[in-house]
Fold each of these.
Amino acid sequence: MSRLSTLDIIQAKGQRKLSMLTAYDYPTAKIVDECELDMILVGDSLAMVVLGHEDTLSVDIPEMIHHTKPVVRGAKRSMVVSDMPFMSYQVSVQQAVDNAGRLIKEGGAQAVKLEGGASVLPQVQAIVRAGIPVQGHLGLTPQSAGQLGGFKVQGKSARAARQLMDDAQALAQAGCFSLVLEAVPAPLAERVSQAIPIPTIGIGAGAGCDGQVLVLQDLVGLFDRFLPKFVRQYARLGQEMSRAVASYKQDVETGTFPGSEHSFGMKQEELEALDQILKGDGREK
Ligand code: KIV
């Protein structure tokens, strides 16, 4: 089965809902891909849910490339989108094109995602001109949470909503093939989705979006520092893993692991010969 292209993603708008999840390594990418999700995001949430940082700001391009590579190896069909981390595109257009190019060339991603509206339009235009598909990201943009006053729902006032709508239209015009809307009121996300020709991918943006994205660790219960309101948790893998690890410890301590089924035997005559040799060496048991 061939990999989905940006054209497939754009053509899905109005036809079917798009599904997207994060992954940061080979085994989880393989699972997500085999479940036939349309897109896999190697998000900068990597910093928090895998690398244990307090926020998403500290992850850099080499780390994003490092995690994008195994995801691309694990995903045969899903389109892999790699996040441009904080300060990898804000400084200049040249910096943005160079780093987007590294995620594609070295990481093997099919597209990049970056946060922001009007302020990053020159970067988006230049990356698209370089032939690299770009996914936009508006609403709660965690890389600028400091400026937004924290991790808060965005676009709640008519004025802020209008600005978000303008940014969405500008990003679509600049050539983005899709747009993530994070933590925006559902009625606003619905209006944005109706107004622009590219698919909107919501996270905490209601059911009116053209698709949905979640962080895999939230969905399967592998990140327990907090759970955003917009997450539906489908499994408690963290608890399940704790149970498994505690049982293993107990079995090791009580000597019930490894069992004979986990051990390798030896022919009786070889064993006897070994014992003779050890006896001759004076290393008798
Ligand atoms: O980094 C990430 O996981 C994201 C999603 C929240 C969209 O940007």
Amino acid sequence: MYKAFLIKYAEIAIKGKNRYLFEDALVRNIEYQLKNVDGNFTVRKENGRIYVETEGDYDYDETVEALQRVFGIVGICPVILVEDEGFDRLAEAVVAHVDEAYPDKHFTFKVDARRARKNYPMTSMELNAALGERILEAFPETKVDVHHPQVMVYVEIRPMINIYSTEIPGPGGMPLGTAGRAMLLLSGGIDSPVAGYMISKRGVTLEATYFHAPPYTSERAKQKVIDLAQKVAKFSGPIKLHIVNFTDIQLYIYEKCPHEELTIIMRRYMMKIAEHFANEGKCLGMITGESIGQVASQTMQSLAVTNEVCTMPVYRPLIAMDKQDIVRIAERIDTYETSILPYEDCCTIFVAKHPVTKPSLKSIKRSEQKLEEKIDELMQTAIDTTETIVVEA
Ligand code: ATP
Ligand code: MG
């Protein structure tokens, strides 16, 4: 019954002169998400509004789902657009909309009319009253309730008249591509895909780095990370993924350094290598799935020591979140089931029984001196042999 959707966006509206950039990005991202949906769609900007219009048959549910993945959208309103052909025709259209949208007429309602075009011959108040009356006449089972109506019937007088009564929530956030790029350290766990999703929701374009340690980690573990990247890419758009062979570095650290410091030292080298690719890709920051106190390598002391090697800002959107809240997001964005597949990730092979929970930078640096002979060469080899792929949803 609907041939169009009115797209509501909030935060974008406050961006002053840059507003059109945000709107244009939003239009592009909507077009991108609708590419794989059955139907012919046109996305149109009009006076601070975005409309998605359809031609011929289309899949309503798929369309709404696709729009719910577009960051920046606050609400998706299936809308009836009619020409202004006088009040009677408008009232007919409103009554027809109510009839089709609500088969059971036992509900309370309120009409909320607005005029973006002030030359319309009736005021908003007159429209509210007159349209309300027409609905009551057509469906005597309905009742008006101006305080807590079950159905709000919005009527907006614009170039075309907009009639709608449903607002499906969008994901919120900012349109992709409006905030620069960042490098996600993506592992096969639950947290990092969620962290990437959250930062990309702020309009940030994602790039990712994954460290594996063949043959200690399997091909399936690698495929799992690619699958996770693909799930995140459903929201974030294509992700350039760097797959770094970390085996020799890990073995070398294992050979030379105290085992309780392994994870921290490994983390520091991961950060350095990821930052190399981040610089190459003109990223403005890095993203991890760390959260205070979750494991030994994520105490404040450990985070400080890990962070010390980074020159770029490191964004940790999960820093203050509990696991169950992270899991809830993972389930919602459909990464959870993949994340919990039981393939070794490179850290679990080399974990110490009693990792340090309060590492001191001094002692870590002292341990790292034992790596001086070969570590630069190993890092260079890891960088040179990195496999880079583009993962698309
Ligand atoms: P996750 O669920 O994201 O794996 P985790 O709780 O298992 O997190 P850690 O293994 O301590 O935590 O990893 C902390 C963060 O370090 C991860 O969120 C991720 O950003 C990064 N990280 C860990 N292992 C890797 C890896 N093999 N490749 C890339 N990044 C990694
Ligand atoms: Mg992990």
